[in-house]
Amino acid sequence: MPDQGMPTGGKLLTELSNAIVGLYRDHFGRGPGAARTFIAEDLVVTVLTDVYTQVEKTLVQAGKMEHVRRTRLLHQHALEGEFTDLVEGLTGRRVEAFMSTIHFDPDLAVEIFVLEPKGSPTDADGDGDQRSAG
């Protein structure tokens, strides 16, 4: 049985989107224009639009896209723990892998989380809720 305090369905998707937008706002100095989160079995994907800062937009216009890509990737790796903690806290499931990518035209970022499968050894009751496993 799911934890009564855990958000589910559309509420969970909204909370994940809002929390990821909050991390962007806190660490990049501005939030994205919009965010939408999808969950399919053991996969959580958040698509964000209008993610670049003014400095990054200037660099993109100057043809320095690889510089922006490298800097964003380094920043995302530095924040990996915060992103995974957020998703684990809201879903109640352990994140096995986190990936982040960006796109320039259109201006998008995608945050991908692979969750530990339901019924794994750390999911003792098989419901995907890691909190009830220990």
What attributes does this structure have?
134 residues; alpha+beta; Threonyl-tRNA Synthetase, Chain A, domain 2; 4-stranded antiparallel beta sheet; 4 helices; 4 strands; 23% strand; elongated; disordered C terminus
Rounded to an integer, what's the Rg over CA atoms? Answer: 16 Å
State the distance separating the first and last CA atoms.
15 Å
Strand order of the largest sheet: 1-2-4-3
Q: How many strands? A: 4
Largest sheet geometry:
4 strands, antiparallel
From the 3D structure, determine the CATH topology. Threonyl-tRNA Synthetase, Chain A, domain 2
- State the helix count: 4
Order of helices and strands: HEEHHHEE
| Proper CATH architecture | 2-Layer Sandwich
Helix content: 40-55%
Q: Which structural class do you get from the secondary structure elements?
A: alpha+beta
Query: In CATH, what is the class?
Result: Alpha Beta
Number of structural units classed as domains: 1
Mean pLDDT across every amino acid position: 88
Q: Which band does the percent of strand residues land in?
A: 15-25%
